[in-house]
Write a structure and sequence with these properties.
Layout lengths: L1 H6 L2 H67 L5 E6 L5 E4 L14 E10 L2 E13 L5 E7 L1 H51 L15 H50 L4 H33 L7 E4 H18 L3 E5 L5 E4 L1 H17 L6 E9 L2 E8 L31 H11 L3 E6 L4 E8 L3
Parallel strand pairs: 7-9
Antiparallel strand pairs: 1-2, 1-5, 3-4, 4-5, 6-8, 9-10, 10-12, 11-12
This protein binds adenosine-5'-triphosphate and magnesium ion.
Length: about 450
């Protein structure tokens, strides 16, 4: 069954097509050479015979039967390859080097192949000959021919060589095709089997490499790369789902117990009011978290690229900073904007505004009272560099990658409200715009930098 399957593989079919084309062209070439050579040799024999007949007929015309007989006797004893027989009307031999009229049906002018016995050095041999028959005036029969034994033998050998070479070519081709398709099938089998295992749930399995560094290894390598990528994405999704479950449960529980406690004992209207206000604050927090998550998801799918439009970053910077002025004032902080020149880029205005808002919000939130926040926009070469600098605690170098993950909040800032999604969103917006996002040390404080490519 498995053996039969091999015949259905693409590799075997390709090998077979190639084999047939190759065999057909080789066969055609040899056959062409053969028919040409054999035809040429046969034509030469016939021509010689015809010439001889012409001569003999002339002789007969000039000197009659005795003259013809004489010349046939002469030629017969000449030792050449010519064959002659002159016979009376009842086919009785009169002269020639054939012992009797050959046993072939003939009519005047016919070409015939026949066999005759030749005796040389005491041994008799059956040989092939080709001849032409003529009826002479007076009813005499003349047969003039040539021994073509060697020629016929060579032809026979070439014919059998042709036959056998065809058999061998096809046989070897079949074996080669089978071996080739078996090899290909075996390699594909491994890939198929591994894929089935992976589909069956063994997600850590990878395609084995043969080490031959061929196209199958390349295919396996690419499949492995794809599987790794899928695993990473799945891991990321599981992490997000875990984070969401974990980080949303706390505020939801808090909300629930707050309401429950209020209901447990009779309360004044003022107390109910306070409890409801607390619940609303908690719900607002939850809504904000959901909105952040949705924004991050939107930035990460890349779908938002469809909304990209040319925009001036200077306008965005001024608008957002203005919104945060009251907050800075309340904390007795200075919020300075340094954006002297316009900077045109292609991007999503809403997402960039939200990202900048997150950075300014952090800067104000994590800087003690009386500090300073500076938002600056510079054009450097092909880039628009947007910076938010504060004089707060800063983020230790070792934590700078870590804080970009969802829901991560540093120990030092636990007593400030927040869900730990602000910087994740900035990072996602940066990736969406092919902008480089980095956190640095402002000595003291944090400097967050976004480098956008200017619109060309
Ligand atoms: N300017 C900053 N100075 C010092 N620490 C910072 C600053 N910005 C961020 N951090 C630290 O990084 C953590 C993550 O910041 P992120 O903006 O992602 O979340 P958050 O501010 O805690 O919450 P959210 O922004 O979602 O309201 C913060 O909790 C804080 O510990
Ligand atoms: Mg924040």
């Amino acid at each position: 069954m498995r053996f039969l399957n091999l015949f259905r593989t693409t590799a075997f079919r390709l090998a077979l097509v190639y084999l047939l084309l190759f065999a057909a062209s080789a066969f055609a070439l040899i056959a062409f050479i053969y028919w040409n050579t054999a035809g040429f040799m046969a034509a030469q024999t016939d021509e010689t015979i015809n010439a001889e007949i012409l001569g003999l007929q002339e002789q007969y015309g000039q000197s009659g039967l005795p003259g013809l007989r004489q010349i046939i006797i002469e030629r017969s004893s000449g030792g050449g390859s010519g064959l002659y027989i002159l016979a009376s009307s009842d086919f009785t031999r009169l002269a020639g080097n054939l012992s009797s009229w050959p046993d072939v049906p003939v009519a005047d002018g016919d070409w015939v192949y026949f066999t005759y016995d030749r005796t040389s050095f005491g041994e008799t041999e059956r040989r092939s000959a080709r001849a032409r028959h003529f009826v002479l005036r007076g009813g005499f029969h003349l047969l003039v021919g040539r021994d073509v034994h060697e020629r016929r033998e060579i032809e026979g050998r070439i014919e059998s060589a042709l036959f056998w070479s065809a058999v061998i070519t096809v046989g070897l081709g079949l074996i080669g095709g089978l071996a080739m398709s078996r090899n290909v099938t075996r390699r594909l089998d491994v890939i198929n089997r591994t894929s089935r295992d992976i589909m069956g749930g063994d997600l850590a399995r990878r395609m084995p490499l043969s080490g031959a560094d061929d196209e199958f290894d390349e295919l396996s390598d690419n499949l492995n790369g794809m599987l790794d990528q899928i695993e990473r994405l799945m891991g990321g999704m599981t992490e997000v789902a875990d984070n969401i479950a974990h980080d949303l449960r706390t505020p939801l529980n808090r909300l629930r117990s707050r309401l429950e406690v209020t209901l447990m004992k009779p309360a004044t209207e003022q107390e109910y009011r306070e409890a409801l206000e607390g619940a609303i604050t908690e719900a607002d927090g939850l809504i904000a978290t959901f909105n952040s998550l949705l924004l991050i998801a939107r930035a990460e799918t890349g779908e938002a690229r469809e909304n990209f439009e040319p925009l001036d970053l200077r306008v965005v910077v001024n608008d957002v900073a203005e919104l945060y002025e009251p907050l800075a004032e309340a904390k007795r902080m200075t919020l300075k904007v340094a954006a002297p020149r316009p900077a045109e880029i292609n991007g999503d205005r809403g997402l960039i505004s939200q990202a900048l808002a997150n950075l300014i919000d952090n800067a104000i939130k994590y800087t003690p009272e009386g500090g300073a926040v500076t938002v600056s926009l510079k054009v450097a070469g092909e880039e628009a560099v947007l910076e938010v600098r504060d004089t707060g605690l800063g983020i230790p170098e070792a934590e700078r990658d870590h804080v970009l993950r969802r829901f991560v909040r540093l120990e030092a800032s636990r007593n400030e409200p927040g869900s730990g999604l602000g910087l994740s969103m900035v990072a996602a917006v940066g990736r969406l715009h092919d902008a480089e996002f980095s956190l640095g040390d402002a000595k003291p404080g944090l400097v967050a930098t976004l480098r956008f490519k200017l619109k060309d």
